[in-house]
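Weekly sync notes, structure subgroup
Attendees: PM, AL, DS (notes)

Item 1: joint prediction request from the bench team. They want all two components modeled as one assembly rather than separately. Inputs as received:
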Amino acid sequence: MMITVKFIFHVAFRWDAEGPFKPLHALNPTRLAFIRSTLCHHFRKDPDSARPFEGLKFIDVGCGGGILSEPLARMGATVTGIDAVDKNIKIARLHAESDPATSSIEYLCTTAENLVDEQRQFDAVLALEVIEHVADPAEFCKSLAALTVPSGATVISTVNRTMRAYATAIVAAEYILHWV
Amino acid sequence: MYRVISRKSNLDVAGLHVLRRFFCNVTIPEVSASNRYIHSNQEYKGENQSENGIQEYDIAIVGGGMVGMALACSLASSVLTRKLSVAIIDDNPALTSGSGINKMELLIQESVWDYTGLGYTRYNARDVNKEVLGCVVENKVLLSSLSLCMQEKEFQKTVLPSRLASMAIQSSMSSTKMDSQLAKLELADGTNVAAKLVVGADGGRSRVRELAGFRSTGRKYPQNAIICTVEHSISNHCAWQRFLPAGPIALLPIGENFSNIVWTMSPKESSDRKAMNDEDFVKAVNHALDYGYGPHPQSKSSIDKLFSSFTSDVVSSNESFEVPPNAVKLASDRMVFPLSLVHTDTYAKSRVVLIGDAAHTVHPLAGQGVNLGFGDASALSKVISEGTAVGIDIGQISVLRKYESERKPANYMMATILDGVQKAYSFDLGPLNALRAAAFHGAQYISPLKKNIILYASGEQKLPFFSWR
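Output from the run, pasted for the record:
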């Protein structure tokens, strides 16, 4: 893979907690804390452990630059991150390489449907802030379910369906500021 | 010899409870115990060796003083942070060896009065239904306790006996690998280390603060402090502090017949008093703590009568003034320190954070400096633990900002209060003297106020005078 200096800037830009993606970084600890406690409960793992998800296979659908995949890997999970946008996967790979704790993440430029066809399955399937972007949400949910092992967990998050959320999250954040 | 008034700080971390247990049983660990752990963890492969031979750590604590070691101890005590690899960078030989008498004393009461003879307040642990107000502990004792506390746990800690020479935190974009995520430190002995987070716990003249380009505001006090140890003919269990025209003098028991002196005065006086012979200095100390500069506080003055309408339920309000025990001999060298008030504008940048004196220095009149540092260590340890729990990068600014927003207002408050008290005593004017005396009496007789002052100074309460019980 040919990597240019310009592309490195892209990675730094995306991962800069004070940069344009600041709201995403600010939201991250809160949603991670929720995911951690919920999945610890579901999989009956010790919430006091530093790596409670050791031995579990997780998939981050729509992983972007890896902002969710990396913390999940540090929490001990064996993580696969997928995104349909090739540039995102390149950014995520490059960033994850820099820390031994995250370098084992498998990043693939593919879709959930393709992995269903390959008959891959995971203990937990996470699709955060993705469902609002897909063409057929019902089909997408079916794919997520097919990727989940029996008695596994599927986590989906999306923005509120209110006028305020529409104005701030879709019009402002997405169309004007291009955050998400 | 350093001294510290370690009033029970608001550390709710398990490690410092361990520490307090050490104090309370007065099992003072041998300093030599710290020798054993220093290099014992090096074979532990917690830290990573990168391809170019640079040791990589999760956290590099620059400065192994009381605050830096308290942070390390606190990290060692939490299940979530115990597995982090930590390097402590300090060339102080006290970390690797130690000798001498180790002393500590539990403080049960404290008397404060001033040279005009008008103001007098006495604090007793029973005022707040406690057994002790705090502890006066020698630096060495605290350090060896902290070392021992870490030694007990399987904590991946390495002491690098060197000084920080240079630091690079700006990610260098020249390479085509994202290895620039770590802060890189070069030590004076040529060692190179890299860390996700660099903690500046290296005191008032912090090298980390300088290298990372933190801006600070502050000023020098026109005062120096003389610090030394004296011996009495009888044992002393009370802390004494008297406000003199040039600054306060404090007598702090450190166990048996020994006490520490912290005496604040003008720079000229301090050089005179450092130069004078031992006998004359001891005489000057006794003079300053007794009839020198003004009368003793009277037991029932007119101001007392004014305040007698506040019927007092605190024990110490009915106790009359006692003269502190005379010093008979000087037991250490006299050391002189300049005093300053400094506060950095921010405590955190990406990958670098400041704690303790590196972030703020305060006037020593209430012995609060290290308590603020312990508060910092506790708060930072907590945010690191929370960050580790959810697997986010602990050097990320959003994590460190949480620590800053918790500690900065609290530290500002204390610095401002201490500065105010210092200012109130930098003038000698009739009306002002009366006002100060009234404030003293308020603290002596109004029991909710007294309780609040004690709880705030001992770190149990975040804000002064807010909760009236």
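Discussion: DSSP finds twelve helices and 21 strands in chain B.
Action: AL to compare against the crosslinking data before next sync.
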